[in-house]
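[[Per-residue structure]]
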Amino acid sequence: MSISAVISLGSLGFLFGCILAYAGQKFEVEVDPRIEKIKACLIGANCGACGYGSCAQFAEAVVAGEAPSTGCRPGRAKVAEKIAEIMAAQKEEG
């Protein structure tokens, strides 16, 4: 009795795992690589000094052209230069 329960639960677990793996690949959302690069060079304090709720939102706004590269006040010129380099490099490639 307990062997059949283990086998059936194991089979269901494997089946659902396969379904989730397939769904994860099928419905994957592509993220602009510039967003990740910009987030990596930001301070990461999520302070809101830029006018956005988090550093991730600020990075998305910069890539969308809604925020200036100089928007991160705690990062000052150093971060602004890095963001400008990332955005310029992408323009050259595109």
